[in-house]
Amino acid sequence: MKKIVVLSGAGISAESGIPTFRASDGLWENHRIEDVATPEAWERNPTLVQNFYNERRKQALSVQPNAGHLALVKLEEKYDVTIITQNVDNLHEKAGSSTVIHLHGELSKSRSCVDETLIYDIEGWEIKAEERCEKGSPLRPHIVWFGEAVPMMDIAASVTQEADIFIVVGTSLNVYPAAGLIFAVQKGVPIYVVDPYSPEIQKRANITFIAEPATIGLTQLADQLMR
After folding, report:
1. Phi first, then psi: what are they for 75, rounded to 5°?
2. What is the DSSP track for 61-91?
3. In order of start, what are the domains of the chain with their CATH numbers?
4. Residue 104: active-site member
5. Is residue 21 a contact partner of residue 8, using CB atoms and an 8 Å limit?
6. What is the pLDDT of residues 63-115, one digit of tens each?
7. Which residues pair with 106 in a beta bridge?
8. Of 92, 102, 104, 142, which residue is the catalytic one?
9. Of the four listed, 28, 53, 164, 169, which is most buried by Cβ atoms within 10 Å?
């Protein structure tokens, strides 16, 4: 069975109603990134950061996967599919995808502030201020903030090297280290880039651009690959 590896970004979630991470004005839901998505922000104002992610979690629970997510699930009928996502929502899982690697963490989980291996599923949408891990530390969102290491990166790079087909969807390929995964694709492997804005990437052989949003482009691509 051939292996498809997918790198997904905010564009695919946007079509389900989740605002993209960074708007053109540099704000995320009217907040400066530096105020809600860095370790320093957490140290400075944990209540603001916790409330921000609680609201994002509530928002994510209210939306559903779109045709793009479902097209990737369809591919599992013929291929071994691994999705590497920059998104922190669980729309890929909700759609039914079997193997999802979250590079930037998961909104539906919390973790200890003193032991990053202590990770917990969140019931509902809220991490309450009084909640603690088993070591007595407050719980923080299980999100990789700016300035933090990306622990799943090595695994993602290893999986990418195994790809027989590589698909990029809904990402500008401007956020590193995730954007660097395209350079881990083995020479000769076909790459499909699904994005209405066709992100600029280093020219190489075997790249096909599909200048459509995920709902249209992935549906078309899945139909083609399933023949």
Report:
1. -65, -20
2. HT----HHHHHHHHGGGTSEEEEEES--S-H
3. 1-18+65-104+151-227 (3.40.50.1220), 19-62+109-143 (3.30.1600.10)
4. yes
5. no
6. 999 999 999 999 999 999 999 999 999 999 999 999 999 999 999 999 999 99
7. 142
8. 104
9. 169
